[in-house]
Design a protein that fits this description.
Helices cover about 15% and strands about 50% of the residues. The chain is mainly β and about 150 residues long. A hairpin with a 5-residue loop joins strand 9 (about 120-125) and strand 10.
Amino acid sequence: MNRRSTLATALTLTTGLALAGCGGDGAPKLEVADAYMPQPVSQQMAGAYFTVKNSGDTADKLTSVTSNLAKDISIHKTVGTKMERVESLPIPANGTLQLGHGGNHLMFMGLKSKPTKDDVITIRLHFAHADPIRVAVTVKAADYQPKH
């Protein structure tokens, strides 16, 4: 083999290996677990928490949440002692997005009805890339603390 064909073969093999390393179909693979809402103390607002697991090789973002329970549902993150409304939250490839007390969470504003302990609320999570996921959220006692 001459030098030029050796170089071309090496480049072809390297490109093939690099593309093979990308793996998967390029789509995020999302699953939601441990969804709960502490029983709200008033009909003005409530919070909700859960974990989104991404077993795919592509990152995604939680971009919005819909439900018939509230007039407005927003995504929040906590920075220090202050919560901020955000447009989206990242879900890393082969990683998780954790929503919990003192961190990322959902805020339900203007509740249409006040859910009570053991009620199940249905929400729909919307993402930048993945299809929406319908989630059953169990209402827990107001002082509920999950065990991790």
